[in-house]
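lol ok so funny story. i was supposed to be doing the assay writeup but got distracted and ended up predicting the structure for this chain instead. priorities right. anyway since i did it might as well share w the group, maybe its usefull for someone
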Amino acid sequence: MLYRVEGIVIRSMDYGEGNKIVTLCTETHGKIGVLARGAKKLKSRHAALTQPFTYGEYVFYRQNNGLGTLNQGEIIESHFSLREDLFLAAYASYACELLDRTLQDEEVGQFWFTQLKACLEGLSSGKDSQIIIHLYEMKVLQAAGYGPSFDTCISCGREDDSMTVSARLGGKLCSRCRYHDPAAFNVSSGTYKLLSLFEKMDLRRLGNIEVKDTTKTELKTVMRAFMDMQLGLKLKSRHFLDQLDKYEI
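and the output, tada:
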């Protein structure tokens, strides 16, 4: 059967002497693997379509639920700038690997697709990369069914002025329920406001935002705890981001 889909390349790997297999995140068919014959050759008409982060229209033939074979395609947005900048490439790679490891094959992908598309567009447009990634992480947690809640206490449902956040329990703890998680974070008002905003905001609506370095450092710690506790994924791309931070490259 012949398919025509819009998709984003989230993974690209060499296959055989001159071919590539790309994994696409699509809006209508979830996550799909497609073989691009001859794509490793410099003059291949498919070479550009298989580059990481590329957003395009892909036409491929597939029987049953196996690997598709690319017939033709057209680039909608190459995201060339993301591949040319070390930091942007690292953030974009993390966004793609996170989605690839979390989204199951054939899972309906409309929400995943729109949020990844908005993430890559935000990175390309020069918005704060760290804020984009943390908002994206929140959307991934929500789509995977692990989205935290910050309006009321996750334990008793009570509202108060507490700014205590539990990664293990998945959200805010009021002052009376703080004892349920000794490892919970007491965060600053700036970090708590951002977490509450991230819970409700679609990534497509994110504008330019300025956040203090101290707030971003705290936000990174909290979001890392949520990601580790709720998803527990070991990602090569995140390790590389950590190395960039460690050596201040």
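The CA atoms of residues 228 and 234 lie 9 Å apart. The helical segments are 80-84, 86-102, 110-124, 129-143, 189-200, 213-230, 236-246.
back to the writeup now i swear
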